[in-house]
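Re: folding output
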Amino acid sequence: MLSWKIKVNKGNMTLMNHEELLLNLKDNEWPLTTINHDRLIARAIVIDDEENFYFVRANRDDDFGKATLIETAGGGVEAGENLDTAIQRELKEELGVDVKVICKIGLVSDYYNLIHRHNINNYFLCKIVAFGEKHLTKDEIEDFHLSTLKLKYEEALAEYEKCRSTSLGRLVANRELPVLKRAKVLLDGLNN
């Protein structure tokens, strides 16, 4: 059962002391040969005042195959960086937004067998406080063709389901749909 406390400070709500999601997932799309590195990642479910959800769209054609994906914004935690700093930086880079972190949703451990990697995904629920310029890397622009998606909750669910037609799309949806659903429960709790 999910439990939480809500802290109200000058009209802002912050979710505290809720049970965090913890998932351990396997890669059933590619054969496991060896896992030789871990990647610490900070990712976020991002909302605005109207409860629109913000994601990135990636158009890939690489070792994972050709795929168009929906994915939460986020990425690798840099050396010496804490999770809060990493999520703020990643959301500024990929979505061009400044955010308030509402809470940590949880942790999802998953694998990309094809590139021998274990992903340690820390997910946060964040609310946009300001829009600005994106700061995408050359790879994000040229290789992944990242763009921003602004969707309602039901549209986001449908988009993840649509992207399950590829192996990578299934891996991403398996990791992110439970997080998105947990975020919706948390948001509903804040609004009641």
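--- second protein (sequence, then structure) ---
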Amino acid sequence: MNDRAVALLEQYDVEVLRTRKGRGAILCDTNQGCLIFKEYTGNEDRIRIQDKLLRHVNEQGRVTVETILPSKEGSLYVKDGDGTMYVLKSYREGRECNIYDKTECLEAVHLLARLHECTILPEGTEGLLPVMPPEREYEKRNRELKKVRKYLQKRSQKTWFEISLLNTYNLFMEQAQRVTEEWAYYREHFALETTGESARTYCHGDYQYHNILRSEEGWFLINFEKCLPDDPIRDLYLLMRKLLEKGNWSIPLGRELLETYEAERPISAISRIDLYYRLAYPEKFWKIVNFYYNSSKAWIPDRNREKLERLVRQEQEKQLFLNEVFRDVSAQR
């Protein structure tokens, strides 16, 4: 961020004592404590609902989350001369949750369950975002996967990575289609509808260790820009997938994560089915394919190859995990 962006801080009713660079942002020492100033890429509707969610969560007092500071004019963002939007938020300096420390990971899951107790917005809340059923997301990703497979098949000269990627396509493409069809069936079977409460129930949207900070004052949750209405199990899925991939789909770890969440907030039968299918969908494969397709083909990083090899190696452990931990769901398939 440049000096022109720093000058925008004059539009806020805060006294800035010192600024320093953070990760894609500017940390500000002010008369109101440590704040963070960063670019905002969403739209006005999203930042308004984000502000309402953050205020509602903080009012409950169960977890501590960031807040958005309004400008002197009362706006939730400011713009520079090019129209780029910036937002000023509360912040606590600390370190990210240690993904290799099981105790901290379990604390992060417990914290998530407490957060979800506070993310149902009050009735009459204006500006709610539309709810997108998960199978709609899967259908979109499946179309992208089919598009990239056709692209790979037509390439005359393929790199080693492209050959390896194409060789794994059938396995993961079949999984993606099956999961999408089965989850759509369950939604129809359970006659799931978007009720008033489901439209008011929000997720963090990006609940991973980067956004879970441990400071001297305790845990602090940040970066709610991707918040959206959905079953809160969406957040648990994302965190569990990250941790289980690191832990080679450990069955004891998975069970402990679920038990920790349910000790605070029990998971309903339909949410358990939801979690199963989110974990069963080959999202990691889709991410690898998506990154490959949208990057330069002249040079493919070794990290892509390593991720693909790790994904294939872990596939057996993942299926064993799903069948064992979600035995009740697997038996109904």
